[in-house]
Design brief:
heterodimer, A: about 110 residues, alpha+beta, Ubiquitin-like (UB roll), four-stranded mixed sheet, about 20% strand, globular, B: about 270 residues, five-stranded mixed sheet, 10 helices, ubl conjugation (chain B), membrane (chain B), ATG5_HBR (chain B), autophagy (chain B), Atg5_HR (chain B)
């Protein structure tokens, strides 16, 4: 658990906009990807999709050759440079942004 | 929906004149002449620059010839997955009628700022994701998910081959309100207010609280804060009239990715 807390710290530092409220992101594994036990994370609103992909990649200690795909609500893959705030404002439900991650294209 | 077919046609036919130059540091031997090309505002640079790439390859050092191609304008790297018209309008708030001078690069891809979307396959999957997201906003995703793979292909092929009828035969289904509704659930829109290419996306209903169809003036009020007021909108190089209905704009002025891409002018209060 100490490990998870450490990672949460890394998720919430380096805020570009310190006053902006953090966004609650729910990470769901899909397909044959390892599961991250802690599913709910708070993320700075201006972080990008590719930043989350890199975080998951690092957290799961994947090979450099493996790729993480992210989907919003099991429907579409957001662009790597899309920011979390835009996704949350349009597709957030019950105060959370629900993201699905996998190692292969799922709902491509 | 699209009774104003003339508008759709005019938007489709919008073009930008571009003058491509080589990157001086990549050239071996004689300096090539610039390459001039008219490109569609609605397309994407990687889809329309095969000829440009081929032309400059002859002048480029052999080790760079297969490199990931990218472009810059006055040192600003251009996002390969934004429609060309969006890039142009953000960098050219005033129409100056001269060709747009871009530099083509074959090396030193700026991984920090640009998403690597230089293959047609990557761009196609990005495009389909935009359509899906737009349909989630308009119709809860019900229209696009009811389509077949061949319909998706037809949209993409219509766009890359510049076939208006082929594209709109499918796109009209995406651009109609669902069932007996009079308008979309929400309007897929990206709002730009700077030339740094970042945008804001939020839920914008086409209907006001009083049940009326929203106009741009309503949208201006919605986007204004006590600190700054939204005072104008542009898209496709056109200043938009504030009486224009937001639903009509979505149906007629959206890019092929089904999003409205609006530059917003703000004034400090």
């Amino acid at each position: 658990m100490a490990d998870a807390e450490e990672n949460q710290a890394s998720l919430t530092t380096n805020a570009t906009d310190k006053d902006a409220a953090k966004i609650c992101v729910l990470l769901n594994a899909t397909g044959n990807v390892p599961i991250i036990k802690k599913r709910t994370w708070t993320v700075d609103p201006n972080k990008t999709v590719s930043w989350i992909q890199k975080f998951i990649h690092k957290y799961l200690k994947l090979d450099a050759t493996e790729q993480i795909f992210l989907y919003v609500n099991q429907t579409f893959a957001p662009a790597p440079d899309q920011i979390i705030k835009n996704l949350y404002d349009c597709h957030g439900t019950n105060g959370k942004l629900v993201l699905y991650y996998c190692k292969n294209q799922a709902w491509g | 929906m699209a009774h104003d077919r003339e508008v759709l046609r005019m938007i489709w036919e919008g073009q930008i004149g571009i003058c491509f130059q080589a990157d001086r540091d990549e050239i071996v031997g004689i300096k090539p002449e610039p390459f001039y090309l008219m490109v569609s505002r609605l397309s994407y640079l990687p889809l329309v620059t095969d000829k440009v790439r081929k032309y400059f390859t002859r002048y480029i050092a052999a080790e760079h010839q297969d490199g990931a191609v990218w472009f810059d304008y006055n040192g600003i790297p251009l996002r390969l997955h934004y429609p060309t018209g969006v890039l142009y309008d953000l960098l050219h708030p005033e129409e100056d009628c001269t060709p747009w001078g871009l530099t083509i690069h074959f090396s030193k891809f700026p991984e920090e700022t640009l998403v690597k979307m230089n293959s047609k396959e990557l761009l196609e999957s990005h495009y389909m994701s935009c359509l899906k997201e737009a349909d989630v906003l308009k119709h809860r995703g019900l229209v696009i998910s009811a389509m077949q793979k061949k319909d998706h292909n037809q949209l993409w092929l219509g766009l890359i081959n510049d076939k208006f009828d082929q594209f709109w035969a499918v796109n009209r289904r995406l651009m109609e309100p669902y069932g007996d509704q009079e308008s979309f659930k929400n309007i897929p829109v990206r709002l730009y207010n700077d030339d740094d290419f970042t945008y804001t996306q939020k839920l914008i209903s086409p209907i006001s609280e009083s049940g009326q169809k929203k106009s741009l003036a309503d949208l201006m009020a919605e986007l204004s804060t006590p600190e700054r007021k939204a005072v104008g909108f542009r898209t496709h190089g056109i200043d938009l009239h504030e009486e224009t209905q937001v639903q009509w704009m979505s149906e007629h002025l959206s890019y092929p990715d089904n999003f409205l891409h609006l530059s917003v002018d703000y004034k400090d209060v």
